[in-house]
Amino acid sequence: MEIVVRPAELKDVSCILEIINYEILNTTVVYDYQTRTYEQQLNWFRQKQRDNQPIIVAEMNGDVIGFGTYGSFRPREAYKFSIEHSIYINAKYRGTGVGKILMRKLIGLAKQQGYHTMIAGVDGSNKGSVEFHKKFGFTEVGHIKEVGYKFDKWLDLVFLQLILTE
To answer: Fewest C-beta in 10 Å: which of 19, 22, 62, 122?
Structure first.
């Protein structure tokens, strides 16, 4: 299984949309209720390009099987060296190492762009994601109880942080 990681292109927006909409409908990975339209995802893609925020895709045999990105942690100026990232993998390819490949690439890009810290917001019930982040050196720095509500239950949010510069 050869996985190629590359910058996302306009042609990838449909695949990215399919992956994110699956998560919205089936998991608490995304705290949205409504699926996104192609136009919404296209606008997201274009805004990321304007803001010089990477979107990378993992491709296997010509198919996009996952993507990762990061963006501003918060909109205030003093947060300009802090980013929050996201990685999403097509459900059929979870556990195959795709997430690790995307994470390594995102961390490298963040360092190249001069960011100081990378933050993850993870649903508290997603223990696998928490442990995944810890393997990359992220530390748990916060736990907010019952901050989200989806699928008729309250959701906790765990924040993890990786300092990128020494």
So the answer is: 62
